[in-house]
Amino acid sequence: MNQPPRLLTLHPQDNVAIALGDIAPGETQGAPRLLQPVGQGHKVATAPIRAGENVLRYGQIIGQARADIAVGEHVHVHNLGMGEHSRDYAHASENAPLAPSSEDRSFMGYHRADGRVGTRNYIGILTSVNCSGSVARFIAEAAETSGLLDGHDNIDGIVPITHGTGCGMSGENEGYATLFRTLSGYAQHPNFGGILLIGLGCEVMQISDLVGGRPIRADGTLRYMTIQHEGGTRRTIEKGLEELRGIATLANKARRAPAPVSHLTVGMQCGGSDGYSGITANPALGMASDLLVRHGGTTILSETSEIYGAEHLLTRRAASVEVGEKLIDRIRWWEDYTARNHGEMDNNPSPGNKRGGLTTILEKSLGAVAKSGSAPLTEVYLFGEKIDKRGFVFMDSPGFDPCSVTGQIASGANLIVFTTGRGSVSGYMPTPCIKIATNSDMYRRMSEDMDINCGDIVSDGVGLDEKGREIFEMLIRTASGERTRSETLGFGGVEFVPWQIGAVM
Q: What is the sign, positive or negative, of the torsion defined by CA atoms of 113, 124, 301, 462?
């Protein structure tokens, strides 16, 4: 396809093109002649669009024109809005499985007693309620200053997992069940070599319910206590340090050993997205996702509110009609959830997304879904629900990145890959996070935070398949112990954000 310089048309049916750099008004780009200044990642009309007509990008509807739009005019929030349109879900109509890879690839991981494999070997101090959060941090600080891990070279560190809920909530509703799954998932996570679980004692999320008289960890490296039972802060810290010494002795016995890449479970996220996200980083990650699935691994797409308007592309790839319907059930739940909380599904994109060129949630979702590649959709899970099937799957979550990643890790993700166009910075202990830049300008500006640049897909003509392979190889290196930029910077201490559903009482 012949493209005018610095403008990219993504599909033959599109009536907009994407600016591949800042373009001045009147500047001729072959065709069309621009009528206004257009920023990188923003849209330009390539055909006349009448008020009420559909605007197409990726060959898909991203909204309707609010006014007549001339050729060469900037298309954005001033003249493009959401409108009603039907979608044909065509459940399970395009679900051909990917051919298995002929490669035999492995990584160096920590083999756990339950058969899963970790990519890190942390000790976690997990809290049942906000009221035990400070004490958990006191214990972690005391462990560090006392040199508790001295000589324990196989342990990556001690991570306090604190949050703002666990009480002031119903003990029976959807919110309780969601938090229960989240805490249980972290307690069993393969990137933890051991867990110290701490409660206050009187909270709704009772330690006794979480433990339930059953072995949460097959390796026996979970200890628990409540502050009220131990006799207050000082005694809990002393008891906590004693328990950590025992846990550390066991956790330090773990050694990295070869494991097939089929044991990798990768949570895929995008945040601070821009007009390049759906052109560069997201489809490149989709290529890497397909590679991992072909090796027998698992990738998780989430952020239900940010696939809205693109869910029909996933239902077509559902492994069965039932799986497709499960995804639509979650969409319907979200429509009701936002309505009863006086919100709307078009609350996205954010102001930063819009500055980067995105206009409607439909446009953002179509770019976000590109992370999923082309593999069949094997299963749909609730937030924090344990992933028990391999391949490409979906986990329900909000679009708020720290919350969505928290759910993916609770479900079993031992790696996170996060694409960003505006420059999101974060990390998610105990799971390493690989940051991928969508454009070269941001990558140069924030290179200390970014692991991979996908802007060269546009600037240097690097192929999506080549970039997907680069991401795949970094997945293996990171799983084997190579530290990511967010790990080096020390991120991960405040990004545990359980999804709070329901009234705070």
A: negative
DSSP structure class, residue 387: P
| Contacts of 235-238 spanning 24+ positions with Cβ under 8 A | 236/135, 236/139, 236/198, 237/135, 237/138, 237/139, 237/142
Tokens of 439: 């454009």
Rounded distance between C-alpha atoms, residue 332 and residue 11, angstroms = 30
* Sequence-ordered list of residues with C-beta below 8 angstroms from that of 334, at least 6 positions apart, any chain: 304, 305, 308, 345
162 in Cβ contact with 232 (< 8 Å) = no
Phi, psi of 66 (to 5 degrees): -85, -15
User: What is the CA 157 to chain-centroid distance, rounded?
Assistant: 23
* Weakest-pLDDT range from 69-83, 98-112, 203-217, 232-246: 203-217
Give the pLDDT band of residue 347 (cuts 50, 70, 90).
Answer: low
| Closest to 169 in 3D by CA, of 132, 202, 205, 193 | 205
Tokens 């008004």 sit at which residue? 25
Instruction: Pick the closest to residue 267 from 440, 48, 427, 441 (CA basis).
Output: 427
DSSP-derived 3-state class of residue 485: helix
What is the spatial distance between Cα 18 and Cα 35, in angstroms, rounded to a whole number?
15
Global confidence as pTM: 0.96
Q: What is the dihedral of CA 392, 190, 478, 317, to 10 degrees?
A: 0
User: In this predicted structure, what is the pLDDT of residue 160?
Assistant: 97
